Amino acid sequence: MSEMEITFPGGKKVNAQWHGFEIRTDQHASGGGEGSAPTPFDLFLASLGTCAGIFALGFLQSRGLGAEGLKITASFEQDPATRLLTRAVLKITLPKDFPPKYKDALIKAAGQCLVKRTMDNPPEFEVTAE
User: Fold this and answer.
1) Class for domain 39-120, per CATH?
2) For residue 7, what pLDDT is reported?
3) pLDDT of 72
């Protein structure tokens, strides 16, 4: 099992040490933080878009297609009462001169990202304390 270390450097900051990287988070000023870094939920949302992006980019690169102009716009809906994510929409802007015959395959490739697939089959969570 892989381990990630979570540290608490002060205020509302909570950081993660993972594969040699320090991933910093903070809360917005309105939530008592300094707004010095994305919130953990911001990173979660960004992981959805960037994961789809790496799959879309890989699709283009594997076919020798240019990526100039490729963009993904991610939109999210949340339940106002629970604040839980209820819908995520990823809109791919295709590169100029993108061959139309690959459009459906590109959409399918972006949908195969590991973050999305994990959400489709959520892991079991266990929280303990020592």
Assistant:
1) alpha beta
2) 98
3) 98
* pTM for this prediction: 0.89
Nearest to 117 by CA among 43, 52, 45, 72: 52
CA angle 111, 26, 16 (to 5 degrees): 65
Nearest to 108 by CA among 52, 61, 64: 52
Domain boundaries, the chain: 1-37, 39-120
DSSP H helices in the chain = 40-62, 103-110, 114-120
The torsion region of residue 33 among left (phi > 0), alpha (psi -120 to 50) and beta comes to beta
Distance CA 3, CA 81 (A): 33
Query: 110 with 58: CB under 8 angstroms?
Result: no
Spatial distance between the Cα atoms of 5 and 23, rounded to a whole number of angstroms: 10
Report the candidate in 85, 80, 98, 105 with the shortest Cα–Cα distance to residue 42: 85
> pLDDT (tens digit, 9 = 90+) per residue, 19-58?
999 999 999 999 999 999 999 999 999 999 999 999 999 9
